[in-house]
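Hi support team,

I'm filing this because I wasn't sure whether my run with S-adenosylmethionine finished correctly. The job status page said complete, but I'd like someone to confirm that the output block is well-formed before I use it downstream. Pasting the exact inputs I used:
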Amino acid sequence: MASHSERAGAGIDWDARYVAGDTPWDKGAAHPALLARLKTLPITGRVLVPGCGAGHDVRAIAAEGAAFVLALDVAPSALNLARSFPKAGNECYQEGDFLTGNAVPPGSFDVLFEHTCLCAIPPERRADYVRAAATALRDGGLLLAVFFTKPENPNLDSPPFRCDLAEMTLLFSKPLRCHAAGIAL
Ligand SMILES: C[S@@+](CC[C@H](N)C(=O)[O-])C[C@H]1O[C@@H](n2cnc3c(N)ncnc32)[C@H](O)[C@@H]1O
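And here is everything the job wrote out:
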């Protein structure tokens, strides 16, 4: 029988990956593009980070003075790991399936920061992700994303699923106003 986190993770047992330490996406630090952005333009207000994993990005955002950062993940072991780090600011970790669209109160976030969460979700569930993002953000809210745009994963049945930038712009442009930017690192 599928575990709770396996069902919530759209067929992937994310918790088992964290338990096994099989987390090659975790670089032990916030993404460099996020750190660069925070240096020039702080991320303020109420921030949502779906698929937060160990929370490196969460703490970087919280440390730079966001009023509140809610970090969401389906994997309890990821959240335990995230909570084991010293608090950086006003961040909080919560277990939940972002795709349901009701994991967080609607319209309550100024910013949604995404870092390789969408690429972890089967492409057929992307519309659910977009709906959940548009619901969580207030009118005029900002989606900041680090998408996985590299096509080198040859396995089309398992993540990471490629998130082509032009495709992402199209995907999000219905409910949100989109300005896409690519950064090569
Ligand atoms: C590739 S990892 C990225 C983790 C983190 N953002 C990072 O960059 O280290 C994808 C994360 O999304 C989480 N996840 C997958 N499906 C989810 C869902 N439906 N709702 C919330 N989190 C989800 C997984 O448990 C995992 O922690």
